[in-house]
Amino acid sequence: MGQFTTESDLLHQIKFLRQNKKLIFTNGCFDLLHVGHVRYLHAAKALGDILIVALNTDSSVKKLKGPTRPVQIENDRAEILASLNCVDFTFLFDDETPERIIRLIKPDILAKGGDWKIDQIIGAPFVQSYGGKVYSLAFIEGKSTTRLIEKSQNK
């Protein structure tokens, strides 16, 4: 089981975590966890040793997804993510993009779901600048939070 932590605590641990380990970074809203998320997170973890997930706060989800989102509050979403055996660390971030935190963590691997092309992934040029790898992982068609919400409303 992973750890739900703060950005500050995670940054204090980075030097220790990095010793002989590859750090994988991803981020997202993870509003309603579904099989697409689970498969993508497992695939991300398989790329290295320690998977760090930056989770959008409720206020940033609202800005990105609209006034009816998130469906679940940030602490619940973080606890759910941290319970997955592939996730090592989860923390909340409120920035408009993850660029700042990517620059602080300096991950070996940056991963996003396949609905993102590599040239669209925020932080990709920075990670590639020091030899890090960037991956756009498989996208499972029809498996999305938006789709789940639409399906639930069409009883």
Relative strand content: 15-25%
N-to-C terminal Cα separation, in Å?
A: 35 Å
The CATH class is identified as Alpha Beta
Structural class: alpha/beta
Unreliable segments (pLDDT under 50, ≥5 consecutive)? none
Biggest pleated-sheet summary: 6 strands, parallel
Query: What spatial form do the alpha-carbon principal axes imply?
Result: globular
CATH architecture: 3-Layer(aba) Sandwich
Q: Could you say what the CATH topology is called?
A: Rossmann fold
The strand order across the widest sheet is 1-4-3-2-5-6
Q: Give the helices and strands as they follow along the chain.
A: EHEHEHHEHEHEH
What are its keywords?
single chain, 155 residues, Rossmann fold, globular
Report on this model:
With 155 residues, this protein is α/β, with parallel strands linked by helices. The protein has one domain: Rossmann fold (3-Layer(aba) Sandwich), CATH 3.40.50.620. It is 40% helix and 18% strand. It has 7 helices and 6 strands; from the N terminus they run E-H-E-H-E-H-H-E-H-E-H-E-H. Strands 1-4-3-2-5-6 form a 6-stranded parallel β-sheet, sandwiched between helices. The mean pLDDT is 90.
